[in-house]
Automatic annotation (TrEMBL):
Its main location: nucleus. This is RNA helicase. Residues 410-433 are annotated as: Disordered. It catalyses: ATP + H2O = ADP + phosphate + H(+). Residues 422-433 have a biased composition (Basic and acidic residues).
Length: 433
């Protein structure tokens, strides 16, 4: 077979499955990592958002699994439920001709159903650490025994999984797996941190090939895709909603599929309701929504039934929705790496995309930190109307926002929020997995 993927050592059935998905030319990270993982090496893979990291770790694992497709083979851990669902779907689609069994183990879904699925001896488990740890702590050998024979552990979005937020649960998950000498460990992320690199310094294991570490560095050392346009817009705090509405409905963007990132669930809820009142087809995704609503929202957005998704950082990592053309950082995160992941929801797999940062006076230092991190200056966003148009938008938006706040008050949203408010939204959203 002359396919480039076959030349990297992937099985014929998998090359065909990739071909059916129009994936024929390996990306740089795939070219680099697939042969090394097939050789039995642990691997750290760093490459920009949307550059095909999932296949870089998934394809060699599936190839090795298909040589003896019986029993538990690999565990993939990810920080968010929706990303776990996406990866489980990808594995299921790629392995369908081989009757692959993939168990999805995430928070917010039925523990009993998951236990039943685990008892059916899946070949792969795709999980968020909190829920997998729960099963490990509370289930018997028939449910979790297979994990002791896993040949692979993948930490997708490894940098965030290696933070304290996940520490305890991650340790529980790893404790049941074979020791690192007897399994392959694969760490992938768009933002390789020092914590991720510590694996490189681990002492070599006798009889095991040395770890392979690969970071795709482009010529210009810019940490975001070259097809991503990054701009900022100075916006006074009190009129952010009006600017958002104006941009989403102006001639350039009124048909664009957009994700709006905010730092807090309350902001997500206010914006969703306000934009809905203003007839924007909008959905939201944050940690205080029941899982069924989270899943439905994402389905609506993927299917373009909603054109705009208002999200907290539960949506900043890994989600692959090719149609997204615009990402707006309505709030700026204090961590510059978060910008890289948020903006990376657009401009994926060589497509073009745009990111706009709303900058209130207090955000200026955060923008400077982002520019330093991505090694690129942002341009000022120009496509915004004059004061008269904004003032007109402001009137409409103020009325819609007032009604939204009133309905939230009636539904007691504030009370529910206060109960959760002790931790930051990012922390909460991940921990709730
Ligand atoms: N070799 C390829 N050729 C064409 N498309 C590809 C190839 N490899 C992957 N893709 C597609 O590119 C998109 C992005 O891939 P993927 O989600 O794995 O990115 P990623 O690097 O994990 O991004 P992130 O850092 O945001 O998680 C997916 O839609 C995937 O199907």
């Amino acid at each position: 077979m002359s396919s480039e993927f076959a030349n990297l050592g992937l099985s014929k059935w998998l090359v065909e499955a990739l071909q059916a998905m129009k994936i024929t030319q390996p990306t740089a990270i795939q070219k680099a990592c697939i042969p090394q993982i097939l050789q039995g090496k642990d691997c750290i893979g760093g490459a920009k958002t949307g550059s095909g990291k999932t296949i870089a770790f998934g394809a060699p694992m599936l190839t090795k699994w298909s040589e003896d497709p019986s029993g538990m083979f690999g565990v993939v851990l990810t920080p968010t439920r929706e990303l776990a669902m996406q990866i489980a779907e990808q594995f299921t689609a790629l392995g369908s001709s081989m009757n692959i069994r993939v168990a999805l183990v995430v928070g917010g879904e039925s523990i009993v159903d998951q236990a039943i699925n685990l008892q059916r001896k899946p070949h792969f488990i795709v999980a968020t650490p909190g829920r997998l740890a729960h099963h490990i702590m509370n289930s018997g050998e028939d449910t979790i025994g297979g994990l002791k024979r896993a040949k692979f552990l993948v930490l997708d979005e490894a940098d965030i999984l290696l933070t304290d937020t996940f520490g305890e649960h991650l340790a529980t998950c790893i404790s049941i797996l074979p020791p690192k000498e007897k399994r392959q460990t694969l760490l992938f992320t768009a933002t390789v941190t020092d914590q991720v690199k510590t694996l490189q310094n681990a002492p070599a294991v006798e009889g095991k090939p040395p770890l392979f570490s690969y970071e795709v560095e482009s010529m210009d050392k810019v940490a975001i895709p070259s097809t991503l346009k990054t701009t900022y817009l100075l916006v006074p705090e009190q009129v952010k909603e009006a600017y958002l509405y104006q941009i989403l409905t102006n001639a350039t963007y009124n048909e664009s599929s957009a994700i709006i990132f905010v730092n807090r669930t309350i902001t997500a809820e206010v914006l969703r309701r306000t934009l809905k009142q203003l007839d924007v087809r909008v959905a939201s995704l944050h940690s205080q929504m029941p899982q069924q609503e989270r899943t439905n929202s994402l389905h609506r957005f993927r299917a373009n039934a909603a054109r705009v998704l208002i999200a907290t950082d539960v949506a900043s990592r890994g989600l692959d929705i090719p149609a997204v053309q615009l990402v707006i950082n309505y709030d700026i995160s204090s961590n510059p790496d978060t910008f890289i992941h948020r903006a990376g929801r657009t401009a994926r797999a060589g497509r073009s995309g745009e990111s706009i940062c709303f900058v209130a006076p207090r955000d200026v230092s955060r923008i400077q930190a982002i520019e330093e991190r991505i090694n690129k200056k942002m341009e000022e966003f120009k496509d915004v109307h004059d004061t008269a148009v904004i003032r007109k938008a402001l009137n409409k938006v103020t009325v819609a926002k007032r009604e939204s706040l009133m309905s939230m008050e009636k539904e007691n949203f504030g009370e529910r929020r206060r109960r959760h408010e002790k931790k930051s939204d990012l922390h909460k959203s991940y921990r709730s997995n």
